[in-house]
């Protein structure tokens, strides 16, 4: 009977130590989860900021491309106008009696 009581006490001590160890691990895991959540929130903020910056840069590039296309169109129009005037002058000079 004494031996059985010692075995039960030993088992209780072992189980108590195991429960305490598991509780400590649980607490450590909860702290790690909290740290990871905070890190995730920070990364989300960084991703949103980067996305906004990229969107802004894209809009800037698109605006510059549009302005460049408009300027190119104006230059081509001026060149075409000058070309038309030159052709008209050449034709005028080719007419007999001019």
What are the main properties of this structure?
mainly alpha, 98 residues, single chain, 0% strand, 1 helix
Report the biggest beta sheet as strand number plus sense, adding barrel if it closes: none
* Average pLDDT score: 95
Count of strand segments: 0
What sort of overall outline do the alpha carbons produce when their principal axes are compared?
A: rod-shaped
Low-confidence parts: none
Alpha carbon gyration radius: 42 Å
Instruction: Give me the number of helical elements.
Output: 1
Could you state the order of secondary-structure elements as H and E?
A: H
Relative helix content? over 70%
Helix-strand makeup class:
mainly alpha
Quaternary structure classification: single chain
Strand content: under 5%
Our measurement of the CA-to-CA distance between the termini, rounded to an integer number of angstroms, reads 139 Å
Write structural notes for this entry.
The chain is mainly α and 98 residues long. The chain is 95% helix and 0% strand. It is rod-shaped, with a radius of gyration of 42 Å. The N and C termini lie far apart (139 Å).
């Amino acid at each position: 009977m004494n031996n059985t009581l010692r075995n039960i006490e030993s088992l209780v001590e072992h189980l108590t130590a195991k429960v305490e160890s598991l509780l400590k691990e649980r607490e450590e895991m909860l702290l790690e989860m909290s740290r990871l959540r905070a890190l995730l929130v920070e990364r989300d903020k960084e991703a949103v900021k980067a996305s906004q910056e990229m969107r802004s840069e894209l809009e800037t590039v698109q605006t510059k491309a549009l302005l460049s296309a408009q300027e190119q169109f104006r230059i081509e129009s001026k060149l075409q106008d000058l070309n038309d005037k030159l052709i008209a002058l050449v034709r005028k000079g080719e007419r007999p009696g001019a």
